[in-house]
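User: I'm putting together a small comparison set for a docking exercise, and I want a reference complex before I start. The sequence is below, and the ligand is flavin-adenine dinucleotide. Could you produce the 3D structure with the ligand included, as structure tokens?
Assistant: Of course. I'll restate your input first, then give the structure tokens for the complex.
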Amino acid sequence: MRILVCVKRVPAPGARINVTVDGQAVDAAHLGFTTSPHEECAVEEAVRLTEIHGGQVTVMTLGPTEAEEQLRYAASVGAHHFVLIPIDEVDWDPQRTAAALSEAIAEVEITDGAFDLILFGNESADAGGFQVGVRVANRLDRPVVNGIKGIEVGGDASTDLSTGVVSARREIDGGFEVYELPMPAVLGVKEGLNLPRYPTMKGRLASKKAVIATDQRTADVGGQERVRLHRPVEQISETVILGTGADAAPAVVDLLEELGVLS
Amino acid sequence: MSLLVVCDHDRGSLSEASLEALTFARPLAAAVGLELAAVVIGEGAEAAALDLGAHGAEIVHVASHPVLTDFGPEAWGETVVQLVHSIGVTAVVACGTDRGNEVVAQVAARLDQPFVANCLSVDPIGDGSGNWTMTRVQWGGSLLEDTTLTAGVRLVTVAHHAVEAEVADEPAAGILSAFSPNLDGSLARTVVTDRVVLTKGITLSTAPVVVGGGRGVGSAEAFAPLEELAAELGGVVGCSRAVTNNGWRPHSDQVGQTGTRIAPEIYIASGISGAIQHWVGAMAAKNILAINTDQEANMVTRAGHAVIGDLHQVIPAITEEVRRRRG
Ligand SMILES: Cc1cc2nc3c(=O)[nH]c(=O)nc-3n(C[C@H](O)[C@H](O)[C@H](O)COP(=O)(O)OP(=O)(O)OC[C@H]3O[C@@H](n4cnc5c(N)ncnc54)[C@H](O)[C@@H]3O)c2cc1C
Ligand SMILES: Nc1ncnc2c1ncn2[C@@H]1O[C@H](COP(=O)(O)O)[C@@H](O)[C@H]1O
């Protein structure tokens, strides 16, 4: 089974998100970087599926050259091939990103064959555009469903998966919906799909040796243009300290009574 | 020319989110001189169409086709695209729910037009360009972005709960108009094939009390006292990502950007530092009580009330006090 996962490098802010003076980016001067939880689960799912059905996982990112770090992390948890599409800007708009990713995917497929499954996050952690995966699927003319929290592929390593069906579950209020997509297919997934593994010692070694292919792409800018980023106004309230340790219990229960949650 | 609002319904019952989208779109359509139209799609759509005039829709397009049975993002997206071409639409608005964002993304991909998701406000630029500026949410609500939109067909969603649904001052005609899109049978490939209903009691998103635990709880077993307090207060247990990552609780208990948004009367957040991604899921709580050994923890400084101390002592003491008072 051939699976592709698209991941994005994003800053990992702590207590609050600060913005650079020009308002164009998150101030990441003192921050680490990470892959969104949704996309971490996508990588984990891809690795698990190839453990069951055989095959290889490719991970692709469009971002600064430092995004190599996120690809190496994917290598440490079991992914096999890596493609970095380097950009000079902080970020590309969703149309431009989707155009570049689609072309890069098509090129890999020409030489190595079609991917049975392409996984995206439901939305990127930072921009949250809710669209890159849908746009790529449309360009590649493949079925796509978002919000997926369960994936099952029938058959085993010997089955011809290119004619197979992937069953995908999506949470709704009070239950879930099931979709049956013919492969090759595209899915946008959410955290909770699985519990990602931590890298092992062996994985860390593999990640150091992983070969990262660089794929230079250009694409036209889309119609959504950033003016500036800013923080929402926060209501700052004094914190009332009800007490210390177990002795605070009566004051806490007074509060619960006052709020009417003890009835 | 029309501004088209995509209205979601579940087998005939209209979603509150659709009415939020109509409420949001009403002044916008008036400002740019577009007729306000709505579309409802699939089986049961006719029943869902009836309320829309009261919310300002002059005309309600009711789309039906054999492929349009249950929800299907591609079939719904293609239907909207065909309506855009057939009635002359220069703007499409939906609510930024999972479905709303997905359907508009489908429309955007098919029309190759930009799509701005989860807006809080949209303002037409008064320079005759027809362009819009908007403020939208990023990072699940922790950050805002001002953007401009230049497009032939403007596609936006309004962030869920950003506006409250209200009927129009004067009801609009709400004339029903049947629409039969021309859909390829292959679009059935992403239509819901089955639905499983899990009957649960109170859920995290609707519970009146949430007792939250973070890394400070220390283990899966150590959540038992939190469960006890939650049961005592008619609430449920929630947790941080540190907890789900450790496998102590299922992801369905996670509060935050990539978990559940909660809005209880009170959120008791214990052993949680209050990272921004957790906070955005908790900030709609009417009251927050933080329990933490660290007085400087963000959860403490942002909460209305706090207890400084070890949650393993504080939580059982609260449960005991509740029981004592109840006799
Ligand atoms: C894109 C993205 C999305 C994310 N989405 C989410 C999300 O949806 N939800 C989420 O929760 N996180 C999310 N995170 C992770 C988030 O950044 C934090 O890592 C996480 O919330 C930390 O969990 P915590 O507060 O339990 O742990 P910690 O930050 O380790 O805090 C533990 C706290 O417990 C206190 N403590 C320790 N022992 C005790 C004790 N005995 N009694 C009382 N207090 C004690 C400590 O003082 C500390 O304040 C996301 C991160 C990213 C990058
Ligand atoms: N720069 C990027 N590089 C690789 N994948 C991306 C990039 N941006 C977005 N994606 C993928 O598309 C999904 C949806 O992104 P968005 O439309 O920004 O919400 C993300 O979860 C990623 O899987």
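Chain A touches chain B through 82 residues (CB under 8 Å). Residues A 6-8, 36, 38-39, 61-63, 94, 97, 120-121, 123-124, 127-133 surround adenosine monophosphate (ligand 2) (CB under 6 Å).
User: Thanks, that's exactly what I needed.
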